[in-house]
Amino acid sequence: MNATTISVAAYPLPADWRDFLALTKPRVMTLVVFTALCGMLAAPVAIDPVIGFTAILCIALGAGASGALNQWYEADIDAVMKRTAKRPLPAGRMDAQAALHFGVGLSAFSVLLMGLAVNWLSAAILLGSILFYVLIYTVWLKRRTPQNIVIGGAAGAFPPIIGWAAATGDVTALPLLLFGLIFLWTPPHFWALALFMKADYSAAGVPMLPVVAGERTTRTQIGLYTIAMAACAVAPWALGLAGDAYGLTAIVGSAIFAVLALRVATRTRGENDAMKPEKSLFAFSILYLFLLFGGLATDRLVFA
Description:
This protein is an all-alpha fold.
């Protein structure tokens, strides 16, 4: 074989710090860290700033470890999807073994540091979230069932519980409701993305709901999950577990989310449709979660 025809992916270029950072999925990590921080701030007890910083650092590192292990296992899928083809592994900038060692090492460090510096309950939940994302979602569910996002959504719902447990050493009703909120938010959020990335998922052989059940079913499911999500979002205020700042944010934000979801649920895409409603829902869904958790933290810091 001529040297010029040798695959770059077979002989990866030396990875630099930007490739290792990309493995951690920084944009996803931002949402994880924010929801964990708000869960910590919403707790009824104040946490020492140094301990709090350490807890958030551990949560960020654990999220990054999950992202790295996810990309290590899914390098073959990432290689055939436009959205992910430039990631370090499919682009040939990193060796798979390096990604695996990085992910495992970061996982162990984050959990041990959380246990030793904060408390072992939050460390155990952090470990559970990493294992759930990597083993349950990435390895078991994603390539096997269109319910991958539904069940796998639990992985992204752990951060506020971890933040709360880091501050209090226990888990009560409010963090469980926050877990439920993110769990129910995940399907409409990801299915909106899957609707306009359907061809990519199909090419990669990932059984996302639009690929195996069709767009009509997916749109209906987005509407149904939005109703359940909105009810869970308002519940902390309705039950007296959060104040009016959060309640107002939850009501207004959920109403906007519902309008966008209704547009997605009740329309039929045309041949040359740019799928703007689906993209609008996906974009707003991220803002929605930031607003809700920001409202929760504001209640605790300003109005408590």
